[in-house]
Structures are given as structure tokens and as C-alpha cells.
Write a structure and sequence with these properties.
The chain is α/β, with parallel strands linked by helices and about 400 residues long. It folds into 2 domains: about 60 residues, no CATH class; about 350 residues, Alpha-Beta Barrel (TIM Barrel). It is about 40% helix and about 15% strand. The chain has 16 helices and 13 strands. The chain has a 10-stranded mixed sheet with strand order 10-9-8-7-6-5-4-11-12-13. α6 links the parallel β5 and β6. α10 packs across α11. The mean pLDDT is about 95. Bound molecules: S-adenosylmethionine (SAM) and iron/sulfur cluster (2 copies). One iron/sulfur cluster binds next to α14.
């Protein structure tokens, strides 16, 4: 079959990425773009940087860059918004940060519509549809169709319930990228880690269908003790490469929340960071290899940092706003106030990007017994948020924009 995607370097995409009213600002950020691989969608003539930025050129890319500029000028813009559309899930993953959540409610379509309309006014560029498992909702396609044309949507899933008609309809929505979880290259291990006997087969089936429909497709690997050497990471990446249908490999470190609450990963993090950097280096040298995104690198001080509660918000399945999908703290709820008012409450505490993962930062302050409702009640959440105020000063990407604005 004819290849529909190719991977390029900055010089090959620079006329496209700079095709924006904000080209001076983008040019100023060049050093961040020269170290990455871009994916070209040959069918739609669209280019992708990674899962945390919209594709370009186009209105969502311009909206995103304009939002970053406004943040540097002192405004607050929730550039990214995740919607936990359901608390239901058919899996029981050993690592799930939602392991303490009991509430299986679904966000109503009316609430989603209202939140998206507020987000549209507030400048949100990227909306993530997540869960639980979003595809357990029968009305999932109705929800995906609500994503406004000014935004791009990301869908996070295990791959369950993917079939040809679904992906064909998906391709007609504003979902431009879909991320399927794949924790290992061996079927038995995936099924065991997910607590579901078809996890591996459903994931692979979804990846193939998405690729056939030419939807940008990624896998998410939560690095765990199962893959614990640089050779194992290479094996995983080679396996994904051999599938010939994946555009991005996202590697995240295990966040000590939910089922992993209280676990000490310090030593493991140090090793994984070394292994994954080495493996990414090898992948980056091969122009045929999909883009490898290391979250610990991208969400660090050297790139965009942690945007929890500042550039990024989550609406939980019960309407509670949390700073990040993995953080079980909440001080406002969209069933009680509009998104703007809810975000304004967060603006009192989250005034910069962080240089470490807020999920990790807050984990040591969570009650050990987990007996309270999750997200934790407002008074406890407020108390922890006050203890964990981020004072790091912005990460490089945002600092660079601030410097440019201040010089002008
Ligand atoms: C919460 S799930 C929701 C979507 C869907 N249920 C899935 O698993 O893909 C989103 C992603 O978070 C990852 N995840 C869950 N718990 C995690 C943790 N403690 N640390 C890091 N990633 C985690 C999952 O592996 C998955 O890739
Ligand atoms: S990681 Fe995803 S699939 Fe696994 S239990 Fe959590 S929500 Fe379900
Ligand atoms: S809390 Fe962690 S997972 Fe969430 S946005 Fe920040 S770095 Fe990413």
C-alpha cells in the first residue's frame, strides 16, 4: 500500500510551520523544533509536531500560538482541556491513576456542549476525549462531533469497539489524532497488565483501522518494570515500527497516583530516563521511524514544563475540574459554575508552568487510606493545592516567548 505519512526535519517543514500570522514568534522558538521529527500527512497536506500541539498550518495552530502569546502577556488561557467523558472501564490496569475512583457517571452531552462552548471563548486549542474508556459510551460519536472547528481533538482509548464504520465517521470529526494504549509487545503481558483478555488484540486492531483511515495514530507506553532495559525499549519500538501503522510512540513515566499511590519510583525514573533517551536517539536517526515523544523530557523545564491547572485543565466525569487528569484534587465543578469561573479559581494558585510533574509533586500529600471521595473534597484539595503552589518560574518554551514579548 502507498505510504500516506512521512517523517521530516524542521528545514523541510519550516515554510509550513511559519505559514501563520505569528511567524515571528514561531521562528523565535526554532531551537525547540529543530530537535524533533515532524509527520507529514500526504493526503491532507497537514503536518504534525507531537501530541501536545495542534497540526499546522491552520486555524487551530494559529489559535494555539496566539494563546501562548497571550499567556506571556499575563492572561490565562486553558490551551488544553481533557474531558473524562465516562468513569466506566472494562479493564483493570495495575497502574491506573484512576484506580481510586468509584464514580462511574458519564458527563452529559449537554454539559460537554456547554464546556466546549466556554472553552471556545476562552481560547482552548486542543481537547482530549478520555475516560475511563470513552468508547464504552454508545453516544461517543455524538460527543466527538461536538468538537468545534477551531479546535483539534485527541481521542485516548484502549482500542475496544473500533470497527471500520467507526473510524470512517471519526475521520469526519475534528479528532485529528488517536492514542491507543499498548503496554508491552507481548500479548500475554498486555492482557495481564490490563486485566482484560482481549486488550492486546483490540489495541492492534484499532491501530490498523486508524492507519487505514489515515488518522494520525499513536501508542502510549507507560514505562513499567515490564520493560526495564534499553534493549527492551528498542524491542518495544521495533515491534511498534514493524506494525507499520503508528505515527507516534509516547512514553510516559508511571505517576504515583491511584493504583500506584505511595510507590517510590525515584530509582526506576532515573534508569528509565536514561534508557528511553538512548532508545529515542536511535529512533531519531532513522528517518523511517515514527516520532518518539518522551513526556518526562517534553514536560520538563527544558521544553514546555508541566501545565497542570495553568495551560491545562481536566473536567472529570462528575463535573469536577482537576488540574490534570492524573491529579485527584478539585476546587470547582462545572455542574455548579461555568468553565470560566471554575478556571478563575485555579488562576489564583496556578500562575506558571512547573518544572516537575504536578501529579508526582502532590502524591506525597494525599491521604494514605484513600477513604475520602475521589477527587478529594474541596477543603482537602484546597489545602494540598496551597501546599504545592508552583513557583518554579516558566519552562524554557514559555520563558522564551516572555523574553521576546518583553523586548518588543
Ligand atoms: C486513563 S487512560 C484513559 C484512556 C483509556 N482507558 C486507556 O487506557 O488508554 C489514559 C492513559 O493514561 C495512562 N495511565 C494510567 N495510569 C497511569 C499512571 N499511573 N501513570 C502513567 N500513565 C498512566 C494509561 O496507560 C493510558 O495510556
Ligand atoms: S488505564 Fe485506561 S484502560 Fe486501564 S483501567 Fe485506567 S482507564 Fe481503564
Ligand atoms: S501533572 Fe504530570 S502528567 Fe499532568 S500535565 Fe503535569 S507533567 Fe503532565
Amino acid at each position: 500500500m502507498k505510504r500516506k505519512k512521512v517523517y521530516l526535519g524542521y528545514t523541510e517543514v519550516c515554510d509550513k510551520i511559519l505559514n501563520s500570522p505569528y511567524c515571528a514568534l514561531i521562528e523565535n522558538q526554532k531551537e525547540f523544533y529543530t530537535t524533533t521529527k515532524f509527520t507529514e500527512d500526504l493526503v491532507h497536506e497537514r503536518y504534525y509536531y507531537n501530541c501536545l500541539a495542534p497540526s499546522f498550518p491552520g486555524i487551530t495552530w494559529d489559535r494555539y500560538i496566539s494563546g501562548i502569546k497571550r499567556m506571556a502577556e499575563g492572561h490565562f488561557v486553558p490551551l488544553m482541556l481533557d474531558l473524562v467523558v465516562t468513569g466506566k472501564c472494562h479493564c483493570n490496569c495495575w497502574h491506573c491513576f484512576r484506580g481510586d475512583y468509584q464514580d462511574q457517571r458519564e458527563l452529559s452531552v449537554k454539559t460537554i456542549e456547554r464546556v466546549l462552548s466556554d472553552a471556545q471563548e476562552m481560547g482552548t486549542a486542543i481537547v482530549g476525549i478520555t475516560g475511563g474508556e470513552p468508547l464504552l459510551r454508545k453516544d461517543i460519536m455524538d460527543i466527538l462531533r461536538l468538537i468545534p472547528s477551531s479546535m483539534e481533538g485527541l481521542l485516548y482509548s484502549t482500542g475496544i469497539h473500533f470497527h471500520e464504520q467507526f473510524v470512517q465517521e471519526l475521520a469526519e470529526t475534528r479528532i485529528t489524532r488517536c492514542f491507543i494504549s499498548l503496554d508491552h509487545y507481548e500479548r500475554e503481558k498486555v492482557n495481564k497488565m490490563r486485566g482484560f483478555s482481549h486488550a492486546y488484540d483490540y489495541a492492534l486492531n484499532a491501530l490498523q483501522l486508524l492507519s487505514d483511515a489515515n488518522i494520525y495514530t499513536g501508542v502510549t507506553l507507560c514505562a513499567t518494570e515490564g520493560i526495564d532495559s534499553v534493549e527492551e525499549f528498542w524491542r518495544y519500538m521495533d515491534f511498534v515500527y514493524s506494525l507499520d501503522c503508528v505515527d507516534e510512540i509516547r512514553i510516559v513515566l508511571p505517576i504515583p497516583q491511584g493504583n500506584l499511590k505511595g510507590k517510590d519510583f525515584k530509582r526506576f525514573y532515573r534508569d528509565v530516563i536514561r534508557w528511553t533517551r538512548e532508545a529515542k536517539k536511535k529512533a531519531d536517526q532513522d528517518t523511517d521511524y515514527p516520532n518518539v515523544v518522551l513526556f518526562n523530557e517534553y514536560e520538563s523545564e527544558d521544553y514546555v514544563g508541566c501545565g497542570a491547572g495553568y495551560t491545562y485543565l481536566t473536567v472529570n466525569n462528575d463535573g469536577a475540574i482537576t488540574p490534570c487528569v492524573c491529579v485527584p484534587l478539585s476546587i470547582s465543578n462545572v455542574n455548579e459554575v461555568d468553565l470560566k469561573t471554575a478556571y478563575a479559581e485555579y488562576n489564583k494558585f496556578f500562575t506558571t508552568t512547573g518544572c516537575t510533574c504536578y501529579g508526582r509533586r502532590t502524591s506525597q500529600f494525599l491521604p494514605k487510606d484513600g477513604g475520602d471521595t475521589i477527587p478529594l473534597p474541596e477543603n482537602i484539595s484546597r489545602d494540598i493545592i496551597e501546599k504545592c503552589i508552583v513557583k518554579d518560574g516558566n519552562a524554557s518554551y514559555y520563558r522564551n516567548v516572555e523574553n521576546m514579548i518583553n523586548k518588543a
